[in-house]
Amino acid sequence: MVFADLHVHTTLSDGQLELAAVPAAAQQAGVEVVALTDHDRVQPELDAPVVEHDGVTLIHGIELRVDAGIQKVDLLGYGVDPTPDLEAECERIQRNRVERARAIVECVEDRLGVALDLDLHPGVGRPHVARAIHDSDADLTYQEAFDTLIGDDGPCYVAREIPDFETGRELLADACSIVGLAHPLRYGDPEHALSLTSDLDAVERYYPYGREVDISPVEQAIDRYDLLATGGSDAHDAQLGVAGLDGSAYERVRTQLPRPTHG
Q: How many whole angstroms separate alpha carbon 98 and alpha carbon 95?
């Protein structure tokens, strides 16, 4: 049973859950703690790093994409107390997200001869574009949109402008109680990704990769660098608790976070 799902997205970025709906979704899944980790955005409606709301503990988190040289990786910050520098960088990234999405949409529309119904709002990402392609007159599924058009090797792919690893790590370290590496076995070079955890507090140990993986390199990094083990479902829909921490594993994380306030 998952006690704490520490990787959940909302409509603030590319998730389907409104923030207000998260406690009910957590209770339905039997989850007692949720970290809200939207892409490159801080939660404007959370006024503390950890909040008790409708019987569920909500951790203010963030998922920040950074350039680590040979590959891009995602950092997870937990217990966010936003600094002006982090807020300014998030605002810059969101402006770039909108510009990038506009360029991708224009490419797709020109290539397919369709019109996409898409609001280019802050937080917009490729999942939004893929859904719009699926809902258009194009005969493509959500996954086919990625596979044939907007994936990393696709003809309509446009790169984002993101901070380098050290800049991103410092921004999060100044604003968060815990900074960790997300889904380390998803990257093209997991060994390189895990080497970055020598400068972090945590690594995502529990994650639904959708395939059989050898988790031993992650466990070795945890032992080598004395890392906290985190975990979560990376939920973009309403189904929480697919992966995460049990009560005892979460207790080690909880001790590094501020005490919750009541929302």
A: 5
